[in-house]
């Protein structure tokens, strides 16, 4: 089963109080999205992920360079719209698509591999990774 990866990277990041596009916010000296892109590469799931960019699109593309297919989300109308923009532009959407958020730098390659394997084994219409947190707002405070 061929699986493609879409990375949502169009957000403004207003809560981060930065002029940079959210995914370029530095985390230990690197743009946070690079940790996710490295995990995707290590997973071996998709050698050329599609990145949906919007706010600061030129800067994001300049910082990240080649190796990715870029799709511009001109109007930031939410997650579903971003995925729709990507799907319209993808030459080959494969048999399954994994959608990841560019501002989630702690996703591991193993998580991506397990998500793909679970989806292939069970063949549902949709597979999602979820997490239970006691306080959703509080988890990110140390990063701002």
Would you spell out the secondary-structure blueprint of this structure?
Elements: E1 3-9, E2 26-27, E3 30-31, H1 32-43, E4 50-53, H2 57-64, E5 69-72, H3 79-89, E6 96-101, H4 109-122
Parallel strand pairs: 1-4, 1-6, 4-5
Antiparallel strand pairs: 2-3
Helix pairs in contact: 1-4
Describe the structure.
32% of the residues are buried. Helix 1 (32-43) crosses helix 4. The model has no long low-confidence stretch (mean pLDDT 89). This protein has a four-stranded parallel β-sheet, with helices on both faces. A two-stranded antiparallel sheet has the order 2-3. It has helices spanning 32-43, 57-64, 79-89, 109-122, and strands spanning 3-9, 26-27, 30-31, 50-53, 69-72, 96-101. It is α/β, with parallel strands linked by helices and 144 residues long. A hairpin with a 2-residue loop joins strand 2 (26-27) and strand 3 (30-31). The chain has one domain: Spore Coat Polysaccharide Biosynthesis Protein SpsA, Chain A (Alpha-Beta Complex), CATH 3.90.550.
DSSP summary: helix tally: 4
CATH class: Alpha Beta
Strand content: 15-25%
SSE topology string: EEEHEHEHEH
Index terms:
alpha/beta; 6 strands; 31% helix; four-stranded parallel sheet; two-stranded antiparallel ribbon; 144 residues; Spore Coat Polysaccharide Biosynthesis Protein SpsA, Chain A
């Amino acid at each position: 089963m061929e699986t493609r990866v879409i990375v949502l990277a169009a957000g403004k990041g207003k809560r981060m109080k930065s002029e940079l596009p959210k995914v370029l916010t530095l985390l230990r000296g690197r743009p946070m999205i690079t940790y996710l892109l490295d995990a995707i590469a290590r997973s071996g799931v998709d050698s050329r992920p599609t990145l949906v960019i919007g706010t600061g699109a030129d800067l994001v593309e300049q910082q990240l360079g080649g190796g990715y297919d870029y799709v511009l989300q001109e109007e930031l109308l939410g997650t579903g719209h971003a995925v729709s923009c990507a799907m319209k532009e993808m030459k080959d959407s494969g048999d399954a698509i994994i959608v990841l958020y560019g501002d989630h730098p702690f996703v591991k390659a193993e998580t991506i591999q397990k998500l793909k394997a679970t989806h292939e084994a069970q063949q549902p219409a949709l597979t999602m990774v979820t997490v239970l947190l006691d306080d959703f707002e509080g988890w990110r405070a140390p990063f701002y």
